[in-house]
Amino acid sequence: MNQKHTVIVTGGNGFIGTNLVQLLLESRQYHVINLDALTYAANPLSLEDLEGHPDYEFVKGSITDRQLIDSLFEKHKPMGVLNLAAESHVDRSILSADDFVQTNVVGTYTMLEAARMYWNTLPDELKQQFRFLHVSTDEVFGSLGEDGFFTEETPYKPQNPYSASKAASDHFVRAFHHTYGFPTIITNCSNNYGPYQFPEKMIPLMILNALSGKPLPVYGDGSNVRDWIYVEDHCKAVKLAFEKGKPGEVYAVGASNEQKNVNLVNQICSILDNIAPPIEVPQLRDRGLKSYAELINFVQDRLGHDHRYAIDASKVQRELGWKPEVGFETGLRKTVEWYLSNPKWVDQASGGSYGEWIEKNYAWRTKKEAE
Ligand code: NAD
Ligand code: TYD
Fold first, then answer.
1. Which domain holds residue 167?
2. Pocket of ligand 2, candidates 202, 259, 305, 362: which has the most ligand atoms within 8 Å of its Cβ, to mutate?
3. Domain count, the chain
4. Is the C-beta atom of 207 inside 6 A of ligand 2?
5. Residue 294 lies in a domain
6. In the annotation, is 286 catalytic?
7. CA neighbor of 132 nearest in space, from 57, 212, 203, 73
8. Known catalytic residue: 139?
9. Is the distance from the beta carbon of residue 195 to the nearest atom of ligand 2 less than 6 Å?
10. Mean pLDDT of 135-143
11. CA-wise closest residue to 298 among 365, 371, 210
12. CATH number of the domain that 26 lies in?
């Protein structure tokens, strides 16, 4: 068997990171060093099955810690980095962007600079092989009207503090390629859904609120549109871009699956009505709910709420041969079933500092603006 490639994955304990680490290990091509600070968004249970895996090593630490990162390059001599670590929730970035600037901007710059210094020391053959793949979002392009799609050529126009911090990190990555010839690749992906997503994000939040009989807070009139991709499809695109992407290139990734928020929440409710009807859920039995959709509650809109995101993914399909494999109906059902089957993971994610945060910040979601 060929020798395995050592890679550093940052943010491997998060939602996409967990799915990506699993995919890399299943491929048996990689030895994975996972550098993760274990913030509120990481769940230690996500990767607990990998403890003792011969091709997996966890390092607790921050992508802002240059000394630690230098020591990881020195010790493991990786052939690449897959940079996922980030603060990722728009609502939190609106309350305060401090951590977003630190991790997304300073952290990405720190990873880049440490990686570039290491890359400079490599002999030519290894230098050619090395890749720095930066996982980014379509939110850097701003918001679309009713028509059109984001492509790799769309000008950057981030409109919330999260997307501004991701745009800044993308610019550093692009600049490192242009200035130093450092072999970077960027993927800009649309909204992911699937197992292991932290329940402050729309899909798991709606599933778990419904199951505990809480209101389902749809922002504004629910007409905002997101383009959803099953997380495993995104991870396959990231792996392909890492392996076959051309240095300096950018790939927009999406599964052509636009959904209006209110329609999506209704679909989640109807799946739940089928597989866990309210009458069969002990804590809901006395509520007289016929459908979870009765819990839908239109609340005050998010500040500066981007109206629509949609990706034209023809480049990644054409140049890397990628295509999404999981249809939305199947993926959404699998996701709902995953949250129902993993109560321990859900308890761990919903407790602790997130429990306190949601209590404190829930008020604005239920309060409608004075008409
Ligand atoms: P997440 O919030 O679920 O996970 C982020 C992970 O990064 C956590 O494990 C956290 O502990 C870790 N982390 C945070 N700060 C860190 C630091 N300073 N040092 C080391 N680790 C740190 O996020 P996600 O949804 O898995 O997103 C992963 C990446 O993909 C992000 O860069 C995000 O911008 C991008 N992205 C996400 C989506 C989406 O829909 N979730 C879509 C496109 C792109
Ligand atoms: P989210 O999952 O936070 O992802 P992003 O803001 O990065 O797109 O939100 C997805 C959409 O759902 C977005 O338009 C905001 C909306 N939303 C709600 O209506 N209610 C909620 O409770 C949340 C968390 C999001």
1. 5-195+229-256+304-326
2. 202
3. 1
4. no
5. no
6. no
7. 73
8. yes
9. no
10. 98
11. 365
12. 3.40.50.720
Q: pTM of this prediction?
A: 0.97
Q: What is the pLDDT of residues 203-240, one digit of tens each?
A: 999 999 999 999 999 999 999 999 999 999 999 999 99
Residue 156 domain flag:
yes
Residue 26 covered by a domain: yes
From ligand 1's centre to the CA of 178, what distance in Å? 25
Task: Rounding to the nearest 10 degrees, give the CA dihedral for residues 231, 236, 242, 245.
Answer: -110
Give, for 265, the enclosing helix (H) or strand (E).
helix 261-275
Burial class (CB in 10 A: 0-12, 13-18, 19+), 49: exposed
**For residue 18, is it within any domain?**
yes
**Which of 10, 16, 62 to mutate to test ligand 1, by most ligand atoms within 8 A of the CB atom?**
16
Q: Which atom of ligand 1 is nearest to the CA of 103?
A: 18
One-letter amino acid at 112 equals L
Q: What is the pLDDT of residues 236-275, one digit of tens each?
A: 999 999 999 999 999 999 999 999 999 999 999 999 999 9
Residue 371 binned pLDDT confidence (cut-offs 50, 70, 90): very low
The CB of 90 under 6 Å from ligand 2? The reply is yes
